[in-house]
Amino acid sequence: MDFWPPIGPAEVLSQLLVGLSRAMILFTVCSGLSFVLGVLRVPNIAHGSLYMIGAFATFSLAKWIGGSAGFWLALLLAPLIVALISLIVERALFCHLYQREHLMLLLFTFALALILGDLTKIVWGAEYRSVSAPEALKGSVSILGASIPRYNLFLIFVGLFVAVALWLFVNRTKIGKVSRAAAVDRDMVALLGINVSWVFSLAFVIGCCLAGLGGALVAPTVSITLGMDHTLIIEAFLIVTIGGLGNMWGALVGSLIFGVTQSLGVLVFPQFAIVFPYTAVVIVLLLRPKGLLKSAW
User: Fold this and answer.
1) C-alpha angle 265/130/164, rounded to 5°?
2) Spatial distance between the Cα atoms of 106 and 45, rounded to a whole number of angstroms
3) Measured between alpha carbons, how far is 108 from 93 in angstroms, rounded to an integer?
């Protein structure tokens, strides 16, 4: 008896595309975390909690609105709800800590993660929730003999759109360029008459909004439950570390490595598929301790 079952090209392509769709969800979340890291120099541990709130908000909005339109409106509104929460937290509390040591900021985001987790439990309870994909994205399509769920292809498209949109924002808009300058020398930017505090606020809100978008996108693919933020935040920090702290393209490369290796691992050794991405992380860090691409730190 063969140790591994025969694997054809169609199976490999199918798993590769599923891995890419998983990678794009990770990238959507990690790009926000990397953006906050790059501008504020703060590892936002609460990022995973905001991702979880985005998923729960998607469930509530989709159920309340109903029908296929419910999902599409939830996909738009849930990240905005997360952005509003992050704006309130940043303006009320976080903005007063920018001059403190990084350890103080780290402890604040850790405490925020605990608070948001408890608030999520109070609002939505401990039951598992689920969201159905809209009718237009149900079913699958055949690509070179491989059957691919339509929703997975949608995730790949959205991930690529987020990458291009974020790159254009950072490199082609005035506020994006100011954010990059403030990350390098906030005092010089302040001398030019720019309110650095509001620049940081915008960067924080954008990063958190992307976390909410990731939660909304993942909602139809997993069970929405308390604790879903724990695994995500571990994976997110590993991804931004191997990609290069604060480097958006590094977050994309890291997400691709993480998502594709896990997906292909299901074909080779399904019982230990989760081991493959972490093995890839170890190999990358042994060869490139500072990350694959240039770190912003």
Assistant:
1) 60
2) 7
3) 9
For residues 218 and 119, give the distance between their C-alpha atoms in angstroms, rounded to a whole number.
21
Nearest partner of 209 among 45, 50, 38, judged by Cα: 50
pLDDT interval class at 181 (50, 70, 90): confident
Q: Which two tokens stand for residue 154?
A: 């949608």
Question: What are the angstrom distances between the C-alpha of 5 and each of 1, 262, 263, 277?
Answer: 9, 18, 16, 21
pLDDT at residue number 283: 93
List all residues 6 or more positions away from 234 whose beta carbon is below 8 Å from its beta carbon: none
Instruction: Give the whole-angstrom CA distance, residue 113 versus residue 109.
Output: 6
Residue 9 buriedness (CB in 10 A; 0-12 / 13-18 / 19+): exposed
pLDDT at 5 over 70: no
The pTM of the whole model exceeds 0.90: yes
**Amino acid at residue number 109:** T
| CA gap 82, 89 in Å, rounded | 11
In 3D space, the residue among 46, 49, 77, 31 whose CA is nearest the CA of residue 216 turns out to be 77
pLDDT digits (tens, 9 = 90+) for 220-249: 999 999 999 998 999 999 999 999 888 889
Question: Token pair of 21, please?
Answer: 């769709």
pLDDT of 12 reads 78
Query: At which residue do the structure tokens 């780290």 appear?
Result: 106
Residue pair 260/20 in contact by the 8 Å Cβ criterion: yes
